[in-house]
Structures are given as structure tokens and as C-alpha cells.
Model the fold of this input.
Amino acid sequence: MIFSNSRQSPFEVLLKKNTDRPRWQHIVAFCALVPVIWGANFLWRPPAPMLGLKHEEHLGRGSTNIAVTFDDAPHPLTTPLLLASLKRADVKATFFCIGGNLRLYPELAHRMVEEGHELANHSEPHHNLTTVDPKSFFSHIDEGFASIARVERDAGKTGPTTRLYRPPGGGLNRAAMQYLYDRNYTLAWWSNNVGDWTCPPAWKIADGVKAHLEPGDIILLHDGGTGTPQALPNIIKAARLRGMSTILMPQQGAP
Done:
């Protein structure tokens, strides 16, 4: 699930509305909401640095690179199209995989590894972690990493497996963040999100990404809609024309 390509949080957007009121009134209202939201055990955008959790949402100032990432992989119809586009462009991407999909489509999973792409964890089933009990979402995280490890082993990949985790729908709570922190995983966020999970046409996806494209971006796309594979060459071309190279998402949590 994707929300908005805005670089502002929903609270920042709210603070800019109703401009007939003094800004300090909005700030006071926001501060009053924080403990309510925290007490409800739900966070829109988790304060990972405050909790000490390793996280990636941008490649950093001064970077001339971008990272292209795809959620919900693999998909029997669109993954081959994405892989073909990436191969033609000589670009490697990070695929955030659903463990159940890896088992359903092992040939595609092996192909992603064999062609040099990174498999990262998007949970075993695609369930928002804030809607399930802690025991279940702990197992969703663990089983997702285990599924990736099996695929990489079967594909002959050596070396450490991924430490990257991106929650379905971006949903996290304190317990999930603590669980990731205790296991030295990296929360994989994003900085450029066009909302392609709603399956808009290719031109709209490409234009949306390019309108917000900056060096250091982590671009969030989805494996499943037909518009995304068609938009991908346009996005890669635009990045190159602006002097940006494409890399895999960094593994901050690697031992």
C-alpha cells in the first residue's frame, strides 16, 4: 500500500492547512496528539532514530545515486517485465518480497537473485503489522527473512542474506520496531513514492516520480501493476540525464 509522493508527513500537511489560524495553535494541537498516537501503539512514520533502530529513507546528502525498489515481489506477470527492463538498462534493483510469493514463483525468485538484484523482506504474508497480534507479526517478519535465505541458498548465492525490512503498507508499532532493533535489522523506508499500487497509467507513474526526483532518492514502486514496467525505462533515463546512477539499497544492518 502506498500513500503520497509528498515529502511532508501528514502532520506537516495539517499544520499548513487552515492558514487563517496562527501557526502556534497548530503546533500546540500537534503536540497534544503525539502522546495519543503513541499510546495507541501506532505510528504513521516511525521515529526510528529516536529508538536507535537502523533505518534508510534516503541515500544521504551529497549522493549522486538513487535506489529503485519494488514492493510485493515476485509477480508472475510483471516481474518478468521489470527484470527485462532492468537488464536492458543494466540496472540492479531491490525487490521487497512477500515470502508466500517466493514459494509460489520460485523460478522468478531464483532469476532475481541470478541477475544480481537484491531480495529484501516485505513480510511472509502481506498483512499490516498494526492489525495482527505481536506473536503473529514476529513470525511474519522471521518467516519472511527465512524464505529469502532459502531462495538465495537454492540459487547458489553466497554471503550474508539481507537485513532490510519494509513493513506492508508502512504500518509499524513500537513492538515491531523493538523487534527489528533487537535483531539488528534495518527499516527500509523511502523518499519518492508515486502511489503506483493504485495502477495508474505508465505516463502518470513516470511523471510523478520525475517531478520529485532528487539525488539520494529511494524510489518506491510496486511489482504487480502493468503501468510500472512501462514507466521504468522513462524513470531510469530521466535519472541518468540528471547525472544520477542507480544502486542497491544500502545494508546498514549488516554485521
About this structure: The domain at 48-247 is CATH 3.20.20.370 (TIM Barrel). The beta strands are 55-56, 65-73, 94-97, 118-121, 164-165, 186-188, 192-193, 218-222, 245-247. Confidence is low (pLDDT under 50) at residues 1-20, 26-44.
